[in-house]
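Hi team,

As requested, here is the filled-out complex form for the adenosine-5'-triphosphate run. I kept the field names the same as last time so the parser does not choke. Let me know if anything looks off before we queue the next batch.

— J.
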Amino acid sequence: MDKPLLEATGFRKAFDGVPALRDGQFTLQPGSVHALCGGNGAGKSTFLKILMGIHRRDGGTLLRDGKAVTFASPSEALANGISIIEQELSPVPAMTVAENIYLGREPVGAFGRIRFKEMNEKA
Ligand SMILES: Nc1ncnc2c1ncn2[C@@H]1O[C@H](COP(=O)(O)OP(=O)(O)OP(=O)(O)O)[C@@H](O)[C@H]1O
Ligand SMILES: [Mg+2]
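And here is what came back:
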């Protein structure tokens, strides 16, 4: 099997002493798709927010391509190829689907011009 793209183990997070997530685990292999299911308040968003650098975890380890990492901000997570699309969708209505997907990280060419053709193809 290929080396996992992402491997989370033992993720823990509490808010004001109240546990929101215990022993969160996830292994992502290249080319795979997962669904994360659970009841309201099960800790799904908390888990993803830790992956995305929105929340700081209280415990656990995260390996990106086998290297231990901690993302202190969403921009750090993005720089490592991790992005999140929130449950409460808030796309920019005046923009295309591709523009929404690449918002803030558009492929740019000479003089900082957005490469729309490349962006549309990748989307
Ligand atoms: N910022 C926060 N401050 C305090 N408690 C929080 C915070 N975020 C989440 N919680 C609590 O942590 C627990 C897990 O919440 P989380 O949002 O991760 O669940 P979820 O699985 O995404 O639920 P849903 O299906 O409703 O989206 C819940 O009890 C929730 O009330
Ligand atoms: Mg949620």
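Two things worth flagging: Residues 91-123 form one domain. The longest strand covers residues 18-28.

Thanks,
J.
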